[in-house]
Design goal:
Blueprint (H helix, E strand, L loop, with lengths): L11 E2 L2 H7 L1 H8 L8 H13 L4 E5 L2 E11 L4 E18 L6 E10 L8 H17 L5 E6 L4 E6 L2 H20 L17 H4 L1 H5 L3 H21 L2
Parallel strand pairs: 1-4, 5-6
Antiparallel strand pairs: 2-3, 3-4, 4-5, 6-7
Helix pairs in contact: 1-2, 1-4, 4-5
Length: 233
Amino acid sequence: MMESEYKEEDFLQLSGLQHFTFCRRQWALIHIEQQWNENVLTMKGNLFHEKVHDGYSSEKRKNVIISRGMPIHSRTLGVSGECDVVEFVQDEEGITLSNREGKYALYPVEYKRGKAKITDEDRMQLTAQVICLEEMFLTTIPEAYLFYGETRRREHVEITDALKEECRKLLKEMHQLYARGYTPRVRKTKKCEACSLKSICLPKLEKSKNVVAYISEHMEYEESVTQGGEEGR
């Protein structure tokens, strides 16, 4: 059974998958409500990516072709975006490329500020890139890499069926929410403190009492104080 395909006009931004995995509300505020707020962390992240690539380019080093800023897409996922780096390494078991001799295996490398995370948002974004590249080049990519600016090292990521299944599940949910124009309610956690949209999201305000309840409570308090004063006369 063939997977259903999305039309190009319905594609979502691949980079949004990282936001969605981190926090569904954050993703909706950015990608549905078009709200954004820079903080020190996001500014550092943007500067870090600017150093990696400036538009699409490629170069060859010995048996490796290094492509930077490569545009990618997937019709089954309904996303488009770009890869920070894709390395095409000569491999007899790989694929052929137009105007290139030999065969090549593909290894996407996503660059991230900071260090490796316990949570899956970076791996999910990388997995989506792999699925895009597999569709575009009709190949299989069993492994990829995350490069972290703080540790200055690559983290090897095995692209398992479980990661792909979770990636497809999350993107299906993203498409459903986007089609409805729905922004999920906030669930306050420790990670809210580092969120660039904290001042917009206002998690504390959403958990506080509404205005009617606030006024009612204070009216009851003032009434009890008044009655208490009258009884004491």
